[in-house]
Design brief:
By secondary structure, the protein is mainly α. It has a domain of about 50 residues. The chain contains 10 helices and no strands. Helix 2 packs antiparallel against helix 7. It is elongated, with a radius of gyration of 26 Å. The two termini are about 45 Å apart.
Length: about 210
């Protein structure tokens, strides 16, 4: 939930906070660095090895670490004659059950986005608005070049690196970036309006004309 802005305080101080937001904005550099390095290492491994191999090797690495730590703690307890119990007791006692309300909330949100995407794609492919369909076609044409330059995993890696860099860059240079974005938006809106005025085809009919038909 976004917090309300108090008088005299800046809007950017009230960015919605959450685990993911805290990570991508590097609020705790140690945690963000660990997550960024770990996930990037997995993605780079997937670009060279199969998914099964990466999952198997990672699982073996984790299992070897936990077994070694368990043996070490058992030996230490035997030498010191203590009974601290299982070294992973706190983790074993954690409740990993997914709450049904959260699962239902995520499912409803996902279905809503899928339905919205389906309606929008239908509108674009069936040329409800000619200009929007042309812009969509230009986007698809650009994606063909993007696909020729990069494979899927490379795009995933680039997107992940961008997720951990662009938000922080934007936060630190918000004023300058917003200024250039406003200029670009105004130019794009001007060009789009001129194209719509020059191409009468595909414009939606007024509601009254539709009723008469």
């Amino acid at each position: 939930m976004v917090r309300k802005i108090k008088p005299g305080q800046k809007e950017e101080e009230y960015v919605q906070r959450g685990p993911v937001v805290e990570l991508v904005y590097w609020r705790d550099p140690k945690k963000s660095g660990i997550v960024f390095g770990s996930v990037l290492g997995v993605l780079l491994s997937l670009s060279y090895f199969s998914l099964i191999s990466v999952v198997a090797y990672l699982s073996l690495f984790v299992l070897a670490g936990t077994v070694a730590f368990r043996i070490y703690k058992n030996v230490l307890q035997a030498v010191q004659k203590t009974s601290d119990g299982h070294p992973f007791k706190d983790i074993l006692d954690l409740d990993l059950t997914l709450p049904q309300d959260k699962v239902r909330e995520v499912t409803d949100l996902t279905v809503s986005h899928i339905n919205g995407a389906a309606v929008e794609l239908r509108r674009l492919f069936l040329v409800e608005d000619l200009v929007d369909s042309i812009k969509f076609g230009v986007l698809l044409w650009c994606l063909t070049y993007l696909g020729a330059w990069f494979n899927g995993m490379t795009l995933v890696i680039i997107s992940f690196v961008a997720l951990f860099t662009l938000p922080k860059v934007y936060e630190q240079n918000k004023a300058q970036i917003d200024q250039y974005l406003d200029i670009a938006k105004s130019k794009f809106a001007d060009i789009s309006s001129k194209v719509r005025a020059a191409i009468p085809i595909g414009k939606k009919l007024p509601v009254e004309e539709k009723k008469e038909q």
